[in-house]
Amino acid sequence: MENKRFKYSPITKEKDLDELIEEIGGARVVMLGEASHGTSEYYTWRTAISKRLIEDKGFTFIAVEGDWPECYTVNRFVKGYQNSGRKIADVLGVYRRWPTWMWANWEVAALVEWIRDFNHIRNAQHKIGFYGLDVYSLWESLDQVLKYMEQHDGKAAEAARVAVQCFEPFHRDPQTYAQATAFVPTDCENEVIQMLEQVAKRVVYPDDPEHEFNTTQNALVAVNAEKYYRAMIRGGVGSWNVRDSHMMETLDRLLEFHGPNAKAIVWEHNTHIGDAQYTDMADDGMFNIGQLARERYGRDRVKLVGFGTYQGNVIASRSWGAPMQKMDVPPAKEGSWEHMLHEMSTDDKIILSKDLKEVPELQRRIPHRAIGVVYDPKVEHLGNYVPTLIPDRYDAFLYFDETEGVHPLHMKTRGAKEPELYPWNY
C-alpha cells in the first residue's frame, strides 16, 4: 500500500509476515523488540514471527530479557528433560521475582506449549532452546553453582562456598551489597572471579553438555551481576552498559555452544534491541545489545525489529516492586513516531526501514514511545519518549494502533530490592 509519506503493509494475520520474513533473509540473529513489558500484542506477534523463523529458516533458540536460572527451567521443560515438570503454568511459576508478569503470563505459556510440541519429535541436537540473557540473578546463580559443584567437584565447590559466604552479610539484598561497596573498600569481586575460574577448568561431560554450560553460565552471571550492582550504586550509565555487555556475552556463548550454523531469536525491550547509536542514549555514552550485535556480526547478519502502539492499556506498576495493575495508555503525543503512524491510518502495519531512507521528515531524531515496568500515564510525555532516528535504529517496525495488556498468571511476587534503572525501567 502506498502512502504520501512512505510504504507500509497492513498486518492482520500470520500470512502478512511474509514480507518481513523475506527481509530477514539469511540473518543469523533476529531481535524482536517491544515498547513495553506488558502488552499482549507484542508477545503474540513475536511468537508468530519466531514460529516462522524456526520452521522456515531453521533458527535454533530464543533468548529473552529474563534471568538465566528461571529461563533454564523453561528450557529443560520445552526439551522434555527428566523431572522438568508436567504443567506449563507450574513451570512458569519459577518466575517469582517482580515483575512476574513479564514471563509468567498466558502469552508466554502459549509460546512454551508450541516449542514443547515442536521439540517432541526431534532429537536432542535439533530441539529449540529457551534461555535468559539478563544479569539480575546473583544469588540464584550462586546457589545453582554451589549445588552442582558439591555433587561433581570439591575444589570448585569450595570456591563457590567462599563466594556465597562473601555475600552472606548482605542478606541477599543487592542494594545493601552495592551500598556497602560504595563506602567500604572491599567487595566480593575476587571471590566470584575465582569461582568462575574454577568452574571454567572443569572437563565438559559429553553426555550432558547443556547442564555443564548451565553451570558455567550461572558462574558468569554471578561475576557480571556483582559488577552490575556495584556500578548501579555509583549512578550514571555504567550499570546499563554492564548489563547489555553481559547480554551480548551470553548471546555469543549460546551461539558458540550451539555450533557454527546456530541462529538466535532475541526478545527484549526496544531500548535494548534498537541500535542505541541512533538515539539520545549515545549522547550519554550508553550502548545496547542491538548495537553490539551489529558491530560483532555485521548489519546484514543481524535484523532488528521494533514494536510500538498508539493507545490502549498495559500491565505495569506505579513504583518499583509495587503490585501490577492494568493502566490506560493514552494516545501518543503529537509529533511522535506513533502519532505519525496513527495519522497515516489506523491499520496495524509493518514498515521496512529500507522504505524510510528517502523520507525527509524521518532523517532526524523524532520522539518514540517507551514504557517500562514502572509507568505513570499522566506524566509519560515527560520521560517516556526516546529521540530516535527510526530508519537506522531498526530494520523493520511493527505498529499496532490499539493494544491490550498482557494476561498475567497472577502469582505471588518476591520483593524487589533493586534500585530503578537509569534512566528508565527496562
UniProtKB/TrEMBL annotation:
Domain of life: Bacteria
Any GO BP annotation: response to antibiotic
PANTHER family registered for this protein in UniProt: ESTERASE, PUTATIVE (AFU_ORTHOLOGUE AFUA_1G05850)-RELATED (PTHR31299)
Stated name of the protein: Erythromycin esterase homolog
Naturally occurring in which organism (per UniProt): Pontibacter lucknowensis
Lineage: Bacteria, Pseudomonadati, Bacteroidota, Cytophagia, Cytophagales
